Amino acid sequence: MAKIRKGDEVLVRAGKDKGKRGTVLNVMADDHVLVEGINLAKRHMKPNPQQGTGGGIVEKEMPLHISNVAIYNALEGKGDRIGFKRLEDGKKVRIYKATGEVVDV
Q: Looking at the whole model, is its pTM more than 0.70?
């Protein structure tokens, strides 16, 4: 079970976008995440008439290492670590380490 999943709101802990928040778009197999609107880079794209895309300079999100983001705890208003806990019915859930509250509802 992954600690950070697609759709989680995360806080960037290191890098040029430190302190910004965004939503995880994709979790990659090599411990990298794509976060919406974070770590933008400009890419020069050639036009491709077969796909109907025009050329020019495009800003796109680049991957961040998963260690440089922390899940955002809305109750405390800051980044938090994730732990795991088994409920009485045997279901495994993610919890915030600081408060012990369940992340998944």
A: yes
